Amino acid sequence: MQWPLTYHEKKRVVQLAIVLALAGWIAADALLGGAAYWQRVWLRLPLLLTGSGSGWPLTGGFALNIFLGLGSMALAAIMGTLLAFGMMAKSRLVRLPCFFVMNFLRNSPWLVLLFAMLYIIPFNVRLFGVSIAVPAFVKAVIGLSLPTAANFAEIIRGAVQSIHSGQWEAARALGYMPMAIYSRIILPQALRRMIPGWMNLYALLMIATSLATVTGIQDVLTTLNTLLSMENERVIVYFYITTLFLFFAYCYPIALLARRMEQSVKGDTL
Amino acid sequence: MFGLDYSWLSDPVYQGWLLRGTLNTIGLALASSAVAVLIGTFGALALSLRIAWLDALIELFVELFRNTPPLLQMLFFYFTLSTIGLRVTDPVTGLSVPLLSAFDCALVSLSFFGGALCIEAFRSGLESLPRSVNEAARSLGYSRWGRFRRIEVPIASRICLPALTNILTNLFKTTSQASVITVPELMYYAGQIYNDTFRTAEVMLLVLLIYVSLVSVLSWGMSRIERALAFPGYGKGH
Q: So where does this one cross the membrane (chain B) (predicted)?
């Protein structure tokens, strides 16, 4: 580092100082009696992370939030892609209902949708004469995937529309069929612009998985609440900070990476 | 229709609950939006001063509140602020009660969450101004403050409006999570109603419809504002 520091370097130095100050504060607090509390948190950390006291098998806790996020994202990707192509269809009969569904899902609160799915999806589904119980986890996945799918579709639509219209015209002039224009020309370019949006959406979804506690599955918040009922008032603060940090540690790197990619995609204007 | 039973809606008690819940939701959303926009404005203003330590602090605030669940933030504020000392003595009973009520905690956490999003949006709006605009203003003899007030804010605010619409609708939707810390808003009363009537699916469908219509009105209003404020070259003024 050269001496007059650049603005960016100065900022990094200050950030390092803040992190050090926080670490120092935690250490000082630990010396003044916080250590016993942190020990309680450390003892319970496997339970918070995996839902079982020994750390295996992965039956709940933060691991369940991750599974929930992945499952909802996969379901949302399928529904969102269908919805996006529906919104870009030529026929108004297809396009307008798709727009309506997308707007409805995007304008409804995640928590309310989750609750609605919890109560609207029946406890038992009769399929080919066999009655199958629908577990709360499946309901949570469906409830979270609905708003995600709407956002997913918007990202696809936005990216496809951001491709310059000259690309369409050139492809048509070269005699490509409509499906071939999509698969060979538009989507390969649009995909680059979709990926940061999808990553941001995944981070958002991961944050929203905390809502799944209302369905009663043993996710990190349910586990936390069960744990806290056995702890004294003071330890609660430490447990909450730990759980907040879990989410931050998972979501921040994704958001950071998404922003990096956004920056790199910004330059290419075709 | 579809076997749904809405006969409970004729009960004036439930009507009153729904109305009060809706009004509380709107109130919470309005208050937190106002504070969030204020935080965003001052945050973006502070960032544009380019002071390294202030920038670092604001970035920490933004990243902390953007990357943790608002629900967990609310629970954190609700359950821990009173234990770490934010308590007052009630003059009537002489008991020590939490300084912040559930509503205040929800308001604080929603404002911070929205504020973090606003700072980010306003900052990128200010940064997206072409450098030439600023140089032109400087050569015309505008002071730093004059440039900010007369050139940067009017243009940047129009660039940010779509992002602000997103944030405000997002914030409105997030107010439903305040029901978890017993703030008596729409979701909370919905829970009360289906606990009484056991008509869970019907109540949730109705509440979903109310939320969707309110958010749709909000985003429609914002797009009207966008169009009214548009000037050639920026946002909807193309």
A: 26-49, 203-222
